[in-house]
Specification:
The complex is a heterodimer. Chain A is mostly beta strands. Chain A is globular and about 40 Å long. The mean pLDDT of chain A is 93. Chain A has no helices and 11 strands. By secondary structure, chain B is mainly beta. In chain B, 0% of the residues lie in helices and 51% in strands. The termini of chain B are far apart. The mean pLDDT of chain B is 94. The chains are: A mainly beta, B mainly beta. At the A-B interface, strand 5 and strand 10 of A face strand 4, strand 5 and strand 10 of B.
Chain lengths: 114, 111
């Protein structure tokens, strides 16, 4: 079984500042990890994913995340926040190599201060 | 290339009624999953269909059922609606074990 914990239901940063959204997972098998973004009244858009190989993965819109097995973490970062980054962000896990449904965290609402 | 589409976008029902939601997967995808997203929560996995069979199911009661058609499109049916079934219902599609891509969702309100 898998689970995801996202620390901080709300994160506020200034425009141009570093964005850091935290995700810790639990999985009994090697995980596949995902970050999705959701804008108001819309579905989920994939930002990036980790399956195997390089532990630092780059996604769309300047986001990246690093898989740290020893810390069971997959934190999302962006060097410089933009107003358009304001949205809900979800971390998700799936048993690696399997065809299972995704297990999501509760989400982090990112607020960008002008 | 159209992405995942869902219909209707919004739906209002009363307690005890039945509802059917529809999903068309992204071109080339053969697997469809359904998720329920309550207000302020992350999506929760309902079930997944592949080759017209339910392959995996989350922790949802039998009131939730589904179907996948030969063209890979899918329906989610919910019987005996409860107030707690009010949520955004998301459909996701993928090819085999590849990444899931999500549709815009159907907002269901139960009064």
């Amino acid at each position: 079984a898998q689970s995801v914990t996202q620390l901080g239901s709300h994160v506020s940063v200034s425009e141009g500042a570093l964005v850091l959204l935290r995700c810790n997972y639990s999985s009994s098998v090697p995980p596949y990890l995902f970050w999705y973004v959701q804008y108001p009244n819309q579905g989920l858009q994939l930002l990036l994913k980790y399956t195997t190989g390089a532990t630092l993965v780059k996604g769309i819109n300047g986001f990246e995340a690093e898989f740290k097995k020893s810390e069971t973490s997959f934190h999302l970062t962006k060097p410089s926040a933009h107003m358009s980054d304001a949205a809900e962000y979800f971390c998700a896990v799936r048993a690696g190599g399997g065809a299972d449904g995704l297990t999501f965290g509760k989400g982090t609402h990112l607020i960008i201060q002008p | 290339d159209a992405g995942v589409t869902q219909s209707p976008t919004h739906l209002i029902k009363t307690r005890g009624q039945q509802v059917t939601l529809r999903c068309s997967p992204k071109s080339g995808h053969d697997t469809v999953s359904w998720y329920q997203q309550a207000l302020g929560q992350g999506p929760q996995f309902i079930f997944q269909y592949y080759e017209e069979e339910e392959r995996q199911r989350g922790n949802f009661p039998d009131r939730f059922s589904g179907h996948q058609f030969p063209n890979y499109s899918s329906e989610l049916n919910v019987n005996a609606l409860l107030l707690g079934d009010s949520a955004l219902y998301l459909c996701a599609s993928n090819q085999r074990i590849d990444t899931q891509y999500f549709g815009p969702g159907t907002r269901l309100t139960v009064l």
